[in-house]
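Here is a protein:
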Amino acid sequence: MARARGLRCAAAAFACAAAACAAEDARWYVQHDNDFFFDTDRWYSSGARIARVAGAVEIGLLQEIYGPDAKNPALVDRAPAARLLGYAAYHRRDDAAWQTAEIALGTRGPSALGRQTTELAHHLVTAHVVDWSRQLPSRFDAQAAFARTDPILGGLKLHTGLLAGNEMTFGHAGVELRCGAAPSMASQLLRYAATPPWPAEPDFGLTTYAGASVRLVARNELLSRAYIPEAPRPSVRRAVGRVVAGVAWTQRRGSIDVSLAHETREFAEQRHPQHFGSIALHIDFR
């Protein structure tokens, strides 16, 4: 029942937003996060987003996959978990700020297709086996997010925001410095919300960026159970830091954005910080 309800909610959110987003100036982008950049395959191991933006409205699908460190097993580690969400976001951009309001509905658990996605990927890239029979159970997944980006000086900007849901709730703040052709862009990895990867103005060329943020965690139900049965649940850390660096290449018909992220431990028993990479590809069909 929870699986069907979650999938229906994700589909309904996507369909309703699609109707509101019917416009001729549609842009599409895909984003993929993965720790294969560092050959780790652990913790936050994969994230995929596909989205359509028309005017100020964005609609999309998001899948996130989390798992234990199968390469170096520990007594206390996170259980496998996946999320599949349909979302709608509204972007308001002007000279003063870039504001994003987003709502997402979907499912956590087997119906989020985490096992199927990882098994498909591991036909191409070998990895240690994770027992997905131990994944978190299915349940309805919903969250709302607000992010604001304020220019400070030149390419330096401040990111603040709040994400609240039944799986995760946290506030965040960070800074980002961009140099090059498109300083109006911003990193989704520092905004924790839908962030289309193209500039507000037609600035074409190479952009480099770096930034850091901290999130203060009030809830993380994705750490509600350990990977090994009857082991104690992981101890959630209330402050998690993230450092990001990347490069973006923007042209008239699209852009590509590649970044690397370093993240401090999400739970006390986590033996190493996490590292992952992110690629975002934007195509303009206008």
Notes: Helices lie at 2-20, 114-121, 188-191. The chain has one domain: 2-284. Confidence is low (pLDDT under 50) at residues 17-23. Residues 2-20 form the longest helix (19 residues).
